[in-house]
Amino acid sequence: MISQDKLNRINELANKSKQEGLTLTEQKEQKKLRTEYLKNVRQSFKNQLKSTKIVDPEGNDVTPEKLKQEKERNSKH
Question: How many of the other CB atoms lie within 10 Å of CB of 60?
Fold first, then answer.
């Protein structure tokens, strides 16, 4: 999970970028922080998806086979 300090810094840089622009160093920092943030969001989404079970109105498990296989692979680790 990304720290609150890093989230605050991302927001600071975004606001500064809109108001006055960023230096080259700040642009690099912003890119690095955004990359880290997106990596974290994607991983969280994948973890959430892996714990999902889809059930039809009759109560049958209709989870896609690909998702079931992914769950199996992760339970072995």
Answer: 9
User: Higher confidence at residue 70 or residue 76?
Assistant: 70
Which of 4, 44, 39 is closest to 12 using CA atoms? 4
Nearest CA to 47 out of 76, 67, 66 is that of: 67
Percentage of residues in the chain with pLDDT exceeding 70?
99
Q: Residue 61 — φ and ψ, nearest 5°?
A: -75, 115
| Phi then psi dihedrals of residue 12, to 5 deg | -60, -45
CB 12, CB 19: distance < 8 Å: no
Beta bridge partners of 61: 55
